[in-house]
Write a structure and sequence with these properties.
Shape: globular
Radius of gyration: 17 Å
Structural class: alpha/beta
Helix content: 25-40%
Number of helices: 8
Largest sheet: 7 strands, mixed
Oligomer: single chain
Strand content: 15-25%
Low-confidence stretches: none
Mean pLDDT: 89
Bound molecules: S-adenosylmethionine
């Protein structure tokens, strides 16, 4: 049987991808150091160092399933603190998030999901909330509660290592960057849950 061809956009080190099996994954990540770590964890995946937004536009037709995790900092509830603080740089929400949702919804024939944090504003397009994330997709995503996320948030690197199997200890990166990379992970169980919603579980109507 042919493997499902997956585009894993804004791949990070692959939290969402960790438990997917029998898939042919192309991961796009623009940070070379992060892409290298992803490749170590997933040696069979094709890793491309590029702008995931542009890559999606040019290559979406080549895939059966697309997962996209555009950067969240300009949407997150933390942003309200920064935009309200005197010395901090002010930022508009980055609308590439909605560009991708609208584009995929209208032009991509396969299954797709775009993931982001819960935003400080009312989402412009209604998402599925799950585990403290928002998901936009063309299939039904059932809710999972955010227990794992809370453990990750309040835990330390060692706890994340034990829980999710991502060990960055031997990488020569600043600890702050390691922590940031680990904080960006979508929990592997949630990644699998979403994948199963797309392909294995009986679909409910939207
Ligand atoms: C939220 S993290 C992704 C987390 C990933 N889905 C996971 O579960 O582990 C977003 C990643 O996108 C990368 N990134 C940011 N802008 C990008 C761009 N324009 N193209 C490709 N990757 C980008 C960041 O370096 C970061 O690793």
């Amino acid at each position: 049987m042919e493997k499902i061809k997956v585009l894993n956009g804004y791949a990070g080190i692959g939290g969402n991808r960790k438990l997917w099996q029998d898939v042919d994954v192309t991961a796009v990540e623009n940070n070379e150091s992060i892409a290298k770590i992803y490749q170590d964890f997933f040696p069979d995946d094709k890793v491309i160092i590029a702008d995931a937004h542009q890559y999606l536009l040019e290559h979406y037709k080549e895939f059966d399933f697309i997962w996209s995790s555009p950067p969240c900092p300009t949407h997150s509830r933390m942003r309200t603190l920064k935009n309200n603080c005197g010395e901090c740089e002010k930022k508009y929400p980055d609308m590439k998030l909605y560009e991708e949702i609208i584009y995929l919804k209208h032009f991509f024939k396969g299954k797709w999901v775009v993931e982001n944090v819960i935003s400080y504003y009312e989402p412009l397009i209604k998402p599925f909330p799950s585990e403290n994330h928002y998901f936009w997709s063309n299939f039904y995503i059932s809710y999972r509660n955010p227990i794992e996320r809370n453990i990750r948030r309040h835990g330390d690197v060692g706890l994340i290592y034990k829980k999710w199997g991502f060990d960055l200890i031997n990488y020569g990166l600043p600890n702050r960057l390691k922590q940031k990379i680990l904080n960006n992970l979508v929990s592997p169980n949630l990644g699998l849950h979403i994948f199963n919603c797309a392909f294995k579980e009986k679909q409910k109507t939207l």
